[in-house]
Amino acid sequence: MAHVVFLRAANVGGKNVFRPAQLAAALKHLDVVNVGAAGTFVVRAPAPAARIRQEFRARLPLELAMVVVPAREVLALVRARPFDGVVFSKELRGWVAVLHGRATFRPALPISAPAAKDWSVRLDRVSGRFALGLWRRQASGFVFPGHVVEKALGPPATMRWWETLERVAGIARAPRGGRSS
Question: What's the pTM?
Answer without folding.
Answer: 0.90
